[in-house]
Amino acid sequence: MVASLSGLLSLMRHHGAERIYAKKLAPNDNSKNQVYLGGGFGALNIIPHGEIVIDTREVAGSKQDRPKAKVKFFWLDEDGRQPTPDAQLILYPDYPEVRMSGFLKGCKAAPSAIMTVRDPGRVLFMGMTATGDVLGYATFADNPIADEVNAREWQSVGVFLELPLDPDQKVSPKAILLSELRRVYEQHWIASQRLARDGQKMQYTAPNAGGYTLEAELGIIPNGIAEPDFMGWEVKQYGVGDFISYRAKTPVTLMTPEPNGGIYKDDGVAPFLRRYGYADKNGKPDRLNFGGIYTCQKGLHPDTGLRMTIAGFDADKGIITDLSGGIRLVDGAGEVAASWSFTGMMEHWNRKHAQAAYVPTLFRTPPPEYSFGSRILLCEQTDFILFLKGFASGAVYYDPAVKLERASEAKPVLKRRSQFRVRHGDLKKMYHHSEVVDLLP
Fold this sequence. Notes:
InterPro entries: MvaI_BcnI (IPR029127), MvaI_BcnI_cat (IPR043004). The chain is built from nine helices and 33 strands. By secondary structure, the protein is of the alpha+beta class. β9 (123-129) and β10 (133-139) form a beta hairpin. The longest helix has 13 residues, at 173-185.
């Protein structure tokens, strides 16, 4: 029996939790009505989940589509982790909001007495592991653990309260991150480097190594799987010309999903390029390119004859009206050249962390060195709906870099990169909350 918040956090950490959250349950948060995880789709960036699939069923004589995603959910008790095989997240695009269901079914050790009632003051705890498991624990209002949660101020992340991993930790992860970034800032120029697998710093002189250098200073070992992570924060650097204007040199690449529909997907990238690509403008022989800037505000691109559209999204209301819709490149005849489904894009977007710190960087050589600035942009609570709003307004745009070299030969060389980008000045539109923090006293 867990007797204190300290004991619960230790138990969560023992079973692999790297981030821990609490949600104060409302009366409607129960097994009958599901557990409300917040408006919009921000919860998807906090809770690890599987592939988003569309469950179509007939309701009152009409078909209803409902996106769902499995969650590897385990209730914790004195015997360890108890699997709950039917736990899932349910998306309601009409509102929009996310709820969790199936968190009791198939698990005899589940806290049914707590999660089937409407008692006020109940608290649900969830720990997120590096392997994508979600650890659960629930208490009634009169439990000492609930009392401890109510007695302190915690950092809010949507409907959740962010709890520390260390039971005795009195400083928030945000404060620790800023303290570490201040330490990095005070070093001024730092040799270009990265961390090896064994955690040792090693020289690294590849172009654009600023991100690796910052990771090395923060003790983040690149793993090629997830974004850099520091106590739940995504940490990203961006190049600037000086530490006076702090003007970003390049836009921010938000994600790089390949199209999952249209001619690009159905016929292949090479046929797509032969139909919509153009000869290299710098005179490189036997090469077809596909590039340009595509937004919903622009007409047919003069080089490719394609324009960007978004189908099934009401930008004014901020809701998805047709789950079969998505982002589409169409030609003058209305044929879909390439498309990205909402569910596919959502899965890419959900890999972004709910909290991100953007750090300005100067570069000089020789030798290659980086200096990290004092003005940090902190952004919190991202949401796929914000991405769609940004795309519909033109703040987010498609900036592809696809090419076919030796195009006339039997085995041409194909290189592809589908980039969705945003100007650094518009980056705040991708989050519900943002602030600029100056590390200088």
